[in-house]
Amino acid sequence: MSIPFTKYHGTGNDFIMVDQTVHHWIQPDNRSLVARMCDRHFGIGADGLILIQSTGEADFQMIYFNADGGVGTLCGNGSRCAVHFARTLGVAFTRHQFLAADGIHAFSQDERDWIGIHMADPLIQSSTLETYLIDTGSPHFIRFTDELTTIDVVQEGRAIRNRPEFPQGINVNFVQWADGRLRVKTYERGVEDMTLSCGTGATASSIALALKNKYRGEQSIPVDVPGGSLEIRFREQHATFTEVWLWGPATPVFTGSFPEKVLH
Predict the structure, then answer these.
(1) In the chain, what are the domain boundaries?
(2) 38 catalytic per annotation
(3) CATH node for 123-248
């Protein structure tokens, strides 16, 4: 058996995309297979793997796996890549919605050819002046810093991710607001490393910025990550955040197949 795939990235956050609208190549319990495909030395190499499947609830279903092979929660950058990939497969966009781990999401595209994903309303679990716990489909720890260029994201992020109070682990975002732009670096659980971008992390960090600076009404936050730029839009009213959209590019890189001999 050889599994056809397309490699994508969303601002450097890279994914293996597999079409399962007809043939189901990978099952949710195929953890070792997914991990081998995502391995950067012995496989294709990626931060995660995404299956596109048919569903009666939306235009398509997106199933996301972390690089360690475990089924993950929502992936924001992966969602944009999933929309782009589904379009190339000829999936009919009759509803402009897809089904993910946390429910139904609407999507759109703008004049920049950026794809926008309508995120679930964020769950703000705790907040101080410098640290925040916010769930945007995936859980995030956000810490503001004035030393983003020198901070050891892997070492400090791993330490926070493995704290006893986070038994399921947590994504860790180090953020800095400067010159009208939000800069974000993220340590991702499941990848267990810094990634070049994290869409749900950029979203959570933008919500944290709004809480910290007491932003009101309609907001559009430009976000810089190591792999490029994103934009987060939302509406704030009485410390409640709605109409949250994650905008950014989705880029196909190459296509191929994962050979049978690697599967044994």
Answers:
(1) 3-114+251-263, 123-248
(2) no
(3) 3.10.310.10
The answer to whether residue 75 is catalytic is: yes
Spatial separation of the C-alpha atoms in residues 79 and 102, rounded to whole Å: 12
CATH classification of 3-114+251-263, choosing from 3.40.50.300, 3.40.50.150, 3.90.550.10, 3.10.310.10? 3.10.310.10
Q: Which of 17, 34, 120, 198 is catalytic?
A: 198
Q: Rounded to two decimals, what is the model's pTM?
A: 0.94
Residue appearing with tokens 């880029």: 251
Instruction: Tell me how far apart the alpha carbons of residues 23 and 212 are, in angstroms, rounded to a whole number.
Output: 48
Identify the DSSP state of 131: E
- Spot the catalytic one: 26, 52, 75, 160: 75
Per-residue pLDDT tens listing for the chain (264 residues): 799 999 999 999 999 999 999 999 999 999 999 999 999 999 999 999 999 999 999 999 999 999 999 999 999 999 999 999 999 999 999 999 999 999 999 999 999 999 999 999 999 998 887 899 999 999 999 999 999 999 999 999 999 999 999 999 999 999 999 999 999 999 999 999 999 999 999 999 999 999 999 999 999 999 999 999 999 999 999 889 999 999 999 999 999 999 855 544
Which residue has tokens 């398509």?
A: 60
